[in-house]
Design goal:
GO terms for molecular function: GTP binding; GTPase activity. It is a lipid-anchor. Keywords: GTP-binding, Lipoprotein, Membrane, Nucleotide-binding, Prenylation. The chain is an alpha/beta fold. It is built from six helices and seven strands. Strands 1, 2, 3, 4, 5, 6 and 7 form a seven-stranded mixed beta sheet that branches. A hairpin with a 2-residue loop joins β2 and β3. It is globular. Bound molecules: guanosine-5'-diphosphate. Guanosine-5'-diphosphate binds next to α1.
Length: 183
């Protein structure tokens, strides 16, 4: 962790990436967290986007630069530039679509290939508001997360359940482990 005897005004910046199959809700998790917005329709634009969010931890400003694939996974593997410098990843599936859960090992492999840190990874089962059409149980999510050493949380970008909590857990975790000082 970056430290200094005179650390007043110290700032930290972490890059966070959100990965997972198309339409699991990655963009909406980000827009819910960063702007408290939700969109029923997927965005038409393709390209990587990020939002910066600040969080105060121990009286210090911790900034999270959160990247969304913005659809590139629909056409090909996410490029290595997307992962570059990332400390944290939210690996997302849709609890109402089993195929997106089955893809998680592939996303974790890709993450291992492109990123050398294991700090702060979280498995996120999104769309937990869709309980009536649930296709992946909470226990399955939890047990995969335990096997892989990931945090686990079910979220809903639609009704806001656990969205702030999920991001803040990983941001705090990374702050407590690895940090990069921003001058
Ligand atoms: P991405 O491709 O992974 O970025 O997914 P999007 O954020 O574009 O969302 C894909 C679709 O799922 C959109 O129609 C969203 O409105 C919907 N969606 C996203 N999050 C949720 C959620 O938590 N609950 C429900 N019911 N729908 C969601």
């Amino acid at each position: 962790m970056a430290s200094s005897s005179d650390d007043e005004g110290e700032e930290y910046l972490f890059k966070i990436v959100i990965i997972g199959d198309s339409a699991v809700g990655k963009s909406n998790l980000l827009s819910r967290y960063a702007r408290n917005e939700f969109n029923m329709h997927s965005k038409a634009t393709i390209g990587v986007e990020f939002q910066t969010q600040s969080l105060e931890i121990d009286g210090k400003e911790v900034k999270a630069q959160i990247w969304d694939t913005a659809g590139q996974e629909r056409f090909r593997a996410v490029t290595s530039a997307y992962y570059r410098g990332a400390f944290v990843a939210l690996v997302v599936y849709d609890i109402s679509r089993r195929s997106t859960f089955d893809s998680i090992p592939r996303w974790l492999d890709e993450l291992k290939t492109h990123s050398d840190t294991t700090v702060g990874r979280m498995l996120v089962g999104n769309k937990c508001d869709l309980e009536n059409i649930r296709d992946v149980s909470v226990e399955e999510g939890k047990s995969l997360a335990e096997e892989e050493g990931l945090f686990f949380m079910e979220t809903s970008a639609l009704d806001s359940t656990n969205v702030k909590k999920a991001f803040e857990i990983v941001i705090r975790e990374i702050y407590n482990n690895v940090s990069r000082k921003v001058l």
